[in-house]
Amino acid sequence: MSAFAAKAPTRALTKTVASRRAAKSVKATRGVVAKAGGLGTPFTTWILQQEMEENIDGELAVVLSSISLACKQIASLVQRAGIAGMTGLAGETNVQGEDQKKLDVISNDVFCDVLRQTGRTGVIASEEEDVPVAVEETFGGNYVVVFDPLDGSSNIDAAVSTGSIWGIYESDSTCIPDFSSEDAAKIEEKCVMNVCQPGNNLLCAGYCMYSSSTILVLTIGQGVYGFTLDPTVGEFIMSHEKIQVPKSGKIYSFNEGNYAMWTDGLKKYMDSLKTGGKDGGKPYSARYIGSLVGDFHRTILYGGIYGYPGDAKNPNGKLRLLYECAPMSFIAEQAGGAGSDGKGRILDIMPDKVHQRVPFFTGSVGEVEYLESFM
Ligand code: AHM
Ligand code: MG
Predict the structure, then answer these.
(1) Which of 318, 321, 322, 362, when mutated, tests ligand 1's pocket best, judged by the most ligand atoms within 8 Å of its CB?
(2) CA-to-CA distance for 331 and 325, rounded, in angstroms?
(3) Structural domain of residue 278, as residue ranges?
(4) Which are the contacts of 281, defined by CB distance < 8 A and separation ≥ 6?
(5) 318 CB under 6 A from ligand 1?
(6) Is residue 291 lining ligand 1, measured as CB closer than 6 Å?
(7) Which residues have CB under 8 Å from 138's CB, separation 6+?
(8) Pocket flag, ligand 1, residue 82 (CB < 6 Å)
(9) 7 belongs to a structural domain
(10) Less packed terminus of the chain by CB within 10 Å, N or C?
(11) From ligand 1's centre to the CA of 362, what distance in Å?
């Protein structure tokens, strides 16, 4: 049986914040507090509010502001891609052998640059980088940020939804590189150790969807909030407060083209959805964009299940544990949903390498549990 109760991160934010947290009574984080000119709470105001309420420390607040800036820049690039010569391939492949699009490379640079400039990020790991990068000492900080700067970029040339995904961990103090005494190999080894943390350690996870509107959704371990970019003021404004995934939902989102390579159990599950699933009745509806952020966003709002299973060719599926499945699972659980590899919680998996892939199923608790019963 799987336990999908939303769980707070097992590690404290920082010692200072942890002790402050222990000392203070729990304050409600719900509610749109500031109203500027009739607007909902701007993201920057919300961040400052979270800092004031000691839910995050000042350093994490800076990192989150810088990520929101990266998302605004990428949103603008994505919108102009077709007319600014930014569609198509960059001519390189990443360490996973995938062709990089021009916008994959540019978006990675945007993320790396803003995070370095904060001076609060010690190590960053990206889908587009071979190994995690230690930010130089002079700019370094305590947080480890893992990210996929532009997920679903195969959709870009057709102007279909894409997104950025990130997760933030505290640095493991035994894994902080020492630039003055350690050589490059040692630094790399320490960086890998620093990012290979289980999702249970996540302090924050989020995504930004570039679609008909640009929406930033995140959790700091106290529920899930969504902010929509208001292009007239250039700011994310709170639009979704305390998102809750419906307990069940009759929408499935899988690349069914891979059906022939699935296990018999998974095939039976898929067949059962077409006759109404556990409770019978109306068949499920299929919805698949092929862009994790878009498919996930719909799934947490409407309910249902998103899946990228392993198959005969790729037993661990396609999606990466560190910067795709773990952050999305943290968000799903914080919204009352689930994230599973088909057998148990994604957040319990200890990564053994940076670009590790895992089968991934997420969405409504009832739907994920039903899938697990076939695996
Ligand atoms: P990417 O990180 O290279 O963009 O690949 C991840 C994407 C996900 O957004 C999406 O869910 C999946 O790949 C789609 O894969 P497929 O085309 O095999 O269905
Ligand atoms: Mg990706």
Answers:
(1) 318
(2) 10
(3) 251-372
(4) none
(5) yes
(6) yes
(7) none
(8) no
(9) no
(10) N
(11) 15
Nearest CA to ligand 1 atom 15: 290
Nearest residue (CA) to ligand 1, atom 12: 290
**Cβ(76) – ligand 1 distance below 6 Å:** no
Q: In which band, very low, low, confident or very high, does the pLDDT at 373 lie, cut at 50, 70 and 90?
A: very high
Q: How far is the CA of 139 from the centre of ligand 2 (A)?
A: 27
Does residue 316 sit in the same domain as residue 187?
A: no
Among protein residues, the one with the nearest Cα to ligand 1's atom 2 is 151
Distances 311 to 1, 48, 182, 289 between C-alpha atoms, Å: 23, 45, 42, 20
Within 8 A by CB and 6+ apart from 292, the residues are 151, 152, 163, 165, 306, 308, 319, 324, 328
Residue 283 resides in a domain: yes
- 33-73 pLDDT, tens digit per residue, is 444 445 689 999 999 999 999 999 999 999 999 999 999 99
Phi and psi at residue 255, to the nearest 5°: -85, 90
Domain boundary residue, one of 216, 240, 264: 240
Cα gap 124→74, rounded to integer Å: 18
Same domain, 100 and 225: yes
**Nearest CA, atom 7, ligand 1:** 152
Percent of the chain's residues with pLDDT above 70? 79
Name the phi and psi angles at 165, rounded to 5.
Answer: -130, 140
Tally of structural domains, the chain: 2
Q: What is the pLDDT of residues 183-226, one digit of tens each?
A: 667 667 667 777 889 999 999 999 999 999 999 999 999 999 99
